[in-house]
Design goal:
21 helices, globular, single chain, two-stranded antiparallel ribbon
Length: 449
């Protein structure tokens, strides 16, 4: 067969056995051409048996799935690597020095979410504190995407923390209900339903106890005429390529998805709130407590801020509230058995924890007494870290459980009691939220601060 003829013989890739059998054979070097004669030819190298075995092992080794964290997807084969996210997103770790500074500035003990590293990362918090110490007010901005009738406990985390921030710093707060976003991103939801769900969810938000005089809650559909000038400026300063690169939009996505990030960005700037903040508040910086998966929106926001003459918003990032089944993602409102809802009865809470909360305890009573539990993967321990206020009691439970002095059932019982009390308290406060109270929080009015 000449060099110009096509070789149509089947090519069979070498098997593992082929590689092992050829381990002692030399790796052939092509014969030199006439043009290469006289050049030094590298010596023939023998492939060792160890190299061949390692090559086979590398091929068979499973490829570890990379964790994915964005506004729509949170996936990981194991625990979320939050240090990696800090490096990947370019934020800063919340350290003990910064927490001590917050205590000095506010005169209050920092929230348990800060003490226990649940809020773990920030952007420009030092800058916000610098301005606050000089007498400059800042405002808080958080939100909720209304896609279900009620909130689960994971949804309450940023609201409970924001409530503490409002009380500690005595600052105004805006809460965005992104009913427009849910319509654009959820194919099964109609626009009218998204708007209705916003007004259902606002009852749970108000039940958290925000200061009415300092809090403005708004639906995007209702408030868009006030936001639109700022939204337009953000949209004009952001290219479609930037939007695709940040959020991963494809050519088959509806155009509303690409336009929406500017709507979520707009409340980061005080020009969006001409009436609530008045002229005195138009230079206020913004601080945004949110889950780390929302950071993409605000990386874009911080990028356009200087070009529009605005100050970059500061951020406080929260870890994900784990589902009952264990680590590797976040609690989902669409999977009932991964979540405890604020509408659940005491019996439902008890059944969900007992049946579905992943245990780090041992298989038998004898093994548990001998070796103790793995508290790092035990969901009941993780949830107690979020909701048990007493630091000493939490440390005692983890210590005794890990040494085998406590059993899984005892830890779950402790958690069930805390959740039942917390959820009942929330339900009692929600029942007091009337249409008139909703109107007061959502009225476009000047806030007192």
């Amino acid at each position: 067969m000449s060099e110009f003829e096509q070789d149509t013989r089947p090519c069979t890739p070498p098997t593992s056995a082929d590689k092992l059998s050829s381990a002692s054979r030399p790796v052939k070097t092509p014969a030199p051409s006439s043009a290469q004669k006289g050049e030094i030819i590298e010596p023939i190298r023998m492939q060792s048996l160890e190299e061949a075995v390692n090559e086979i092992s590398d091929e068979k080794a499973p490829v570890k799935k990379e964790q994915v964290v964005d506004p729509w997807t949170v996936e990981s084969e194991g625990a979320i690597d939050y240090d990696k996210l800090i490096s990947q997103f370019g934020s800063q770790k919340l350290d003990e020095e910064l927490l001590a500074r917050m205590e000095r500035v506010t005169g209050k003990k920092v929230h348990r979410f800060l003490r226990r590293g649940i809020f773990f990362s920030h952007r420009d918090l030092n800058t916000i504190l610098d301005m606050y110490e000089k007498g400059q007010k800042f405002y808080l901005y958080t939100g909720r995407g209304p896609s279900s009738e009620s909130l689960h406990l994971g949804h309450l985390i940023p609201f409970h923390f924001t409530k503490w921030l409002q009380d500690a710093f005595d600052c105004p707060l805006v809460i965005q209900l992104t009913d427009d976003e849910k319509f654009l991103f959820k194919n099964d939801l109609k626009l009218e339903e998204c708007h209705r769900l916003a007004y259902e969810n606002v009852k749970d938000i108000i039940a958290v106890g925000f200061d009415l005089k300092k809090t403005f809650i708004f639906s995007d559909l209702d408030y868009i005429q006030h936001m639109y000038p700022t939204v337009l400026k953000i949209q004009k300063a952001t290219t479609y390529n930037q939007s695709r690169a940040i959020f991963g939009f494809t050519m088959s996505d509806n155009i509303g998805k690409s336009a929406f990030p500017a709507v979520q960005a707009a409340p980061s700037f005080p020009s969006t709130f001409r009436i609530p903040f008045g002229e005195k508040g138009q230079n206020m910086p913004c601080l945004i407590p949110c889950a780390i998966d929302q950071d993409a929106y605000f990386r874009m926001t911080r990028d356009v801020a200087p070009r529009l003459g605005f100050m970059k918003p500061g951020l406080l990032h929260c870890k994900f509230f784990p589902p009952l089944q264990g680590r590797g993602g976040k609690m989902s409102g669409s999977l009932a058995n991964t979540a405890v809802y604020v509408t659940d009865t005491p019996k439902q809470i008890k059944d969900k924890i007992n049946k579905h909360a992943f245990s780090g305890g041992r298989e038998t009573l004898e093994l548990q007494r001998q070796f103790g539990a793995n508290v790092d993967v035990d969901v009941s321990c993780e949830w107690l870290t979020f909701f048990l206020e007493d630091d000493d009691r939490l440390a005692t439970i983890k210590s005794e459980y890990s040494k085998g002095a406590m059993l899984t059932g005892e830890v779950k019982k402790e958690l069930i009691g805390i959740l039942q009390e917390m959820v009942q308290d929330h339900q009692d406060k929600r029942a007091l939220v009337t249409p008139e109270i909703i109107q007061q929080y959502m009225a476009v009015r000047e806030l007192e601060f």
